[in-house]
Amino acid sequence: MFQLPFPVRDANAGSGADSLGNLPEWDLSDLYAGEDAPELDRDLAWLEGECSAFAADYEGKLAELDAAGLLDCVLRNEKINSIAGRIMSFAGLRYYQLTTDADRAKFMSDMQEKITIFTTPLVFFTLELNRIEDDVLAGHLTTNTDLARYKPVFDRIRAMKPYQLSDELEKFLHDLGVVGDAWERLFDETIAGLTFTIDGQELNIEGTLNFLTEQDRSKREAAARELARVFNDNIKTFARVHNTQAKEKEILDRWRGMPSPQMGRHLSNHVEPEVVEALREAVVAAYPKLSHRYYELKRKWLGLDRMQVWDRNAPLPMEDTHTVAWEDAEKTVMDAYNAFDPRMGEIAAPFFSKGWIDAGVKPGKAPGAFAHPTVTDVHPYVMLNYLGKPRDVMTLAHELGHGVHQVLAAEQGEMLSSTPLTLAETASVFGEMLTFRKMLDAAETKEARKVLLAGKVEDMINTVVRQIAFYDFECKLHSARAEGELTPDDINALWMSVQAESLGEAFDFMEGYETFWAYIPHFVHSPFYVYAYAFGDGLVNALYSVYASGAEGFEDKYFDMLKAGGSKHHKDLLAPFGLDASDPKFWDKGLSMISDMIDELEAMED
Fold first, then answer.
1. Chain-centre distance of CA 166, in angstroms?
2. Global pTM?
3. Which end of the chain is more exposed for a tag (fewer CB within 10 A), N or C?
4. Is residue 378 part of a domain?
5. Structural domain includes residue 129
6. Domain span holding position 96
7. What does the pLDDT read at residue 18?
C-alpha cells in the first residue's frame, strides 16, 4: 500500500491570525500540475503496464536470478515505488489541504484503489525474496557491490519472514487494504468536520485546541468543556473506528503469528522490543522527577490549589502571549539553523521560498502538522496550522528539521531513504533544540529565561511523558480489544488509567476528559507510533549533550547520520558519537537533561 503519513505532530496552535503576515501555501506543481495533468495519466498508464511486466518477468523466478539479475529486479521495483509514491503524495497532500472536499476525497480514494490494483501482482517480490537461501543471498551481496547497497532493505524484509503468509493470502490482504483505509478516512473527515462553539464563535478543532493555551483561564475551561461535549456527541463513531482498527490488527497479527500487537511496529522501526521496553521503563520510573515535579511547580506559578486538565498547557502568568508573525518565526528558526551550520540553512531556505510549506489554518484542513518526503526525485512538503504562538515557532523548527533530514536522506534512493520512526524524529527534535537554545541565549531577563525553560520542559514532557502514556494506553486498548468489543466507557476507562499516573497529584480531571483519546490521530493511522517521539527526544538529548561538549567534527558526523536515511541501524548511526541506545543508561542521560532544567526552574524560586 502506498500511503501518506497522517499529520501526527501533537502541536498546540496559537491565535491572532490577522497579524501573522503572508502565510505560505503549497505549490504542488512539482508533483503534478493538477488532477487532469497529462503527466499523471502517463504515469498511471506506465505503472499499470510496468507492474504487469514486472510480475511476468520475475514471479516464480527470484531464486534463479544471479546477482546482476536480482539488482535489475530491485531497481525496477524501486522505480515502481517512486512513481506510485509520487501519485499518492500528490493525491494525499491535496486531500489534507481540504479534507471536507468530496472531489479531493474521491480523487485520493480513486488513486489509492488504482495503485492497489496495479501493485497487487507485485506482492510476490517480498515473499520470494524471503525464500532465497541465506547463503545464496549472501553470495550475491558479496559479488555485486551495487546490490550490496540494498542489504538493509533485504534485512528489514527478511525480518518479516517468520510472519509471512501464503502468496495467495498476502495478495488478498494487499487488496483488502483499501477497506481499512476507509476507516482512517472516516476518522479524518469526522475530525475535520467537527465544529465547536465558544463565545458564539464557531471553530474547527485546531482553533478550539488553541484556546487551551490562552492566558484567560475561563477561555481554557470553556474550550475544554466544549471539546468534551463534541467528542461525547461523536463518541460512538470514534469507538467504532478504534474497535474496527484494533480488531483488524488483532486478526492480522494472529494469522501472522506476531508475539505481540507492538511487534509489527518494532519490526518496521528496526528496533529491538527490549530497547523500547527499556525506554518505557525509564520514562515511567522518571514520572515523579519529571512531570509530577514540574506540574507541582506550575500549580504554584498559576496560584492554584489544584490544576485542571485545561491548565496543562496554560501560559505562565508572566508570559508575554504576543503573536509571532510568520516572518519573525522564519527568521528565528533560520538563524538557529544557520548558527549550527550554514549547510543546514541552505537546505532549509527553499521550503520558505518555493511553496514547500502550507502554514495557514483553514476550514477543512487536516489538523496538526507534518513533513512528508514525497519521493526522492522531488522534495518534501511541510504542513503546519500556524497561529502565532511561540510553540508554533517550535513546531516550525520541528517540521523543518524533518524536511532537512528528508532532503539529505533522498540521496539514498527510494528504497533506502526512508528512516525508521525511531530515528525519523532525530533531526526534527534536534532542530527544536537548536532553536530553543538560540532563544535561551538571547533571553535578557531572569523572567524571560524562566518562561523559555518552562516552555521547553513542557514540550519535552509532552514529547516524552505524554507519548509514553499514549503508548501504554494503546497497549491496554489492543490487549482489551483482543478479549472482545469495547464500549466507549471501556475505552474511556483505559484512557483515564494512564492519565493520573503520568501527570501526577497536581491535577483533577473534569467530567468529560475521559473522551479525549478520541482526537489523537496516531492511534488510528499508526498504531504504537507514539513511542518514536520519546525515543527521538531521548536520543537527541543525548546527542545534544555531545554537541554541547564541543566534540570535534560533530557537524559532519551529524550530516552523515541524516544522509544515511534508512541504510544503517541505530547502533551504527550512533556509534560515531559514542552513544548506544541499547544501553539502559542511555535513556537516563536524555531524561536527566529534562530533570536538570526543572532543577534550574526550582532554583529560580529561591
1. 32
2. 0.82
3. C
4. no
5. yes
6. 38-158
7. 58
